[in-house]
Amino acid sequence: MFRIGLVGIGKMGISHLAIARSHPGLECVAVCDSQAFLLAGARSHLHLDAYKSFDEMVASARLDGVVVSTPTSSHTRLARAALEHGLAVFVEKPLTLRAEESRALAQLAERRGLANQVGYHNRFVGTFRELRRLVQAGAIGRIHHVDGRAFGPVVTRPAGAGRTWRTKKAEGGGCLHDYACHVIDLMNFVKGPPAEVVGSRTTRIHSAQVEDAVHAMFEYGDGATGMLETNWSDESYRKMTTSVTVYGTRGKVFADRQEIGLFLDSGSTFEKFESGWTVRYITELQEPVAYYLRGEEYSAQLDAFADALSGRPHAHASTFASAAETDAVVEEILALDGSLPTERRRVADAEPCIPSTDELLQAARLYARARGAAARRRMADELRRFKERRA
Predict the structure, then answer these.
(1) Considering the entire predicted model, what is its pTM?
(2) One-letter-per-residue 3-state SS of the chain
(3) Which of 81, 86, 177, 227 would you label with 276, given CA atoms 20 to 30 Å apart?
(4) pLDDT value at residue 377
């Protein structure tokens, strides 16, 4: 049994606490939070050691690791302090607000030889894992385009400025850090990180300080392209819906939380899959877990953390290093859009040469059809024009 402490008893913290307390390999012995009434409840009802100071908990509770579920702006300090005390660390996504800080944490964890993980739970969803397997096994041939999307009804009306930490960009809020990072991580999981973000645009629909929608276009080192679209102000969805579609020279494959569809071109086969559509559902693909809460993937990621504490890290789990790659893409999207935090750069100061959303969508449609030599030349010309406008 590995002794862990939980930092932050909010939405995700309560979820992690429930799963960890039922886990056969983890013993949650302490919690830390800034709210006294939450600590009082943890002491009286759960019989846990409760601390208002993170440093005091780390010094007193004899821990093997910590699970950090606090606002993103606090992740760097807490993760670094835990690693310097020799503790394994699980941090909720995104790892930090700056790719440089994320890379530094990854390097520190590697030097100390400590287990480290970030809460990108979609990597533990059976459909997305099968998507990655099929793509990397060459089922649809050479990849030429990856499309990632996420939509949901999180912000559906104007909210008061500064209502929560999510509404403050410097605290880790916004659709880009809350929604888009999940999709970027999935695209990285399936295809690998892009070589370049070639265009981006964020849009405020209801929020005053953060973006509600994100559009971005990627270019990969092998010439493939990518398109990201996320919107957390879309009331046509009942809850967050995430999907990834990958296009190859022999077909395409689509996956979301519920199903995966593989289409192979006429005459193409792969393993037991014939040409045309094959659809499989999450009930066929999801591995069972000992304790179910919200979805198997949330328990599976803590299973992976427990295994990492035992010296058996999962190849598909998100580490600090892979999360830093996601943070780097987020940072590039912000830099191209001109929407860096106000203390670094104002949105109004962004260059007017950034392509419009209509231009990006037109280019994306071109990329999706880029199968022949003529289309590839048009794609290259479009990329060149984007770069010239930004120069």
Answers:
(1) 0.84
(2) CEEEEEECCCHHHHHHHHHHHCCCCEEEEEEECCCHHHHHHHHHHHCCEEECCHHHHHHHCCCCEEEECCCHHHHHHHHHHHHHCCCEEEECCCCCCCHHHHHHHHHHHHHHCCCEEECCHHHHCHHHHHHHHHHHCCCCCCEEEEEEEEECECCCCCCCCCCCHHHCHHHCCCHHHHHHHHHHHHHHHHHCCCCEEEEEEEECCCCCCCCCEEEEEEECCCCCEEEEEEECECCCCCCCEEEEEEEECCEEEEEECCEEEEEECCCCCECCECCEEEEEEHHHHCCCCCCCCCCHHHHHHHHHHHHHHCCCCCCCCCCHHHHHHHHHHHHHHHHHHCCCCCCCCCHHHCCCCCCCHHHHHHHHHHHHCCCCHHHHHHHHHHHHHHHHHHC
(3) 227
(4) 61
